Amino acid sequence: MNPTLDDTVLAWSQNELTIYSTLSLISPLSDLNSIDDEVIVCLAHRYFPESVPNLIQQLRQPNHDSLSQLFQERVGIVPSTNTFTWLHQLQQWVTLQENIHKKQEGFMEFETNANQLLSRLLQLYHQWVDLLTKEEQSVTSSKTERKGKARTKKEKRKRYKMG
């Protein structure tokens, strides 16, 4: 096996389990061979907390079969005697989930920005319509005033001619 990959998987596992070892629920991982059912319980709790509601009880009496079934159903892997292989598969699954989440966040951010832009464009459109309406009213009232003034001038001329 590639020692670099072993070290990477170990470092990843240690990082994922830091909170559990900090709380003294499990011992810090020193190597991949120190992984036992308690570590698997903590990993299950880390990724599927709703499936491990009572962590302390599960740590006292881990049920290997139910844990295996949980990882099989959710991730498609079964904790096996080759801890490196299944931890590496779990790491790959977690990385994939994180990438999917990032893409979804990126899409959601894009959607939010697009909605804000569309909202602003809609505001500008309404402002433009209001300006056109006011201009049209101004032109209409200006024509009416001119017609009124023209009538007044004609009437004055008529009166002047008559008088």
Structural topology:
Elements: H1 3-16, H2 18-22, H3 37-47, H4 55-60, H5 64-74, H6 83-162
Helix pairs in contact: 1-6, 3-5
Your description of this structure?
- The structure is a single chain.
- This protein has 163 residues and is mostly helical.
- The chain has a domain at 3-108.
- 78% of the residues lie in helices and 0% in strands.
- The mean pLDDT is 83.
| SSE class | mainly alpha
Number of strands: 0
Work out the radius of gyration.
37 Å
Distance between the termini: 120 Å
Q: Tell me the fraction of residues in β-strands, as a range.
A: under 5%
The parts where pLDDT drops under 50 for at least 5 residues are none
Rounded mean pLDDT is 83
Helix/strand order, N-terminal first: HHHHHH
Task: Tell me roughly what share of residues is in helical segments.
Answer: over 70%
> Which descriptor suits the 3D outline?
rod-shaped
- Biggest pleated sheet: none
In short:
The chain has 163 residues and is mainly α. The chain has helices at 3-16, 18-22, 37-47, 55-60, 64-74, 83-162. It has a domain at 3-108.
